[in-house]
Write a structure and sequence with these properties.
Elements (H helix, E strand, L loop, with lengths): L2 E5 L3 H13 L3 E5 L2 H10 L4 E4 L8 H9 L9 E5 L6 H8 L3 E4 L4 H12 L4
Parallel strand pairs: 1-2, 1-3, 3-4, 4-5
Length: 123
């Protein structure tokens, strides 16, 4: 069973992603900020991480930078899911090491299909 960590300071955003992934048979953990996300990833690395870019404490970019400095997490797929849709944000996120960048609000089918594709889940 694939495991996913969702890190977002908004509970409603975490709930949306969790619901989509649980219906696809994934085990989902949640973190309300970047520090909690790092702690959970380092305790028990998931198969995929979905990060909001703007969170208190450590933001998504800081979490990404910390993880990419550790060879153990160099290939961990990390997706940016954010309300930040300014010009250049997508490019900055992909250059930082995110494997994908999605903006909120996101189509549930697009979210589901892309995350399951990254997890290698066939339906």
């Amino acid at each position: 069973m694939k495991r996913v960590l969702i890190a977002d300071d908004k509970e409603s955003s975490r709930e949306l992603v969790r619901t989509v992934l649980e219906h696809a048979g994934c085990v989902v953990e949640e973190a309300a900020d970047g520090r909690e996300a790092l702690a959970k990833i380092m305790y028990d690395s998931p198969n995929l991480v979905v990060l909001d870019l703007h969170m208190p404490g450590l933001d998504g970019f800081e979490v990404m930078e910390t993880l990419r400095q550790n060879p153990q997490y160099a290939s961990l797929p990390i997706v940016a899911l954010t309300a930040s849709a300014m010009q250049g944000d997508r490019e900055r996120a992909l250059a930082a090491g995110f494997v994908d960048y999605m903006t909120k609000p996101v189509s549930l089918s697009v979210l589901r299909n892309r995350l399951l594709e990254l997890l290698g889940v066939k339906e």
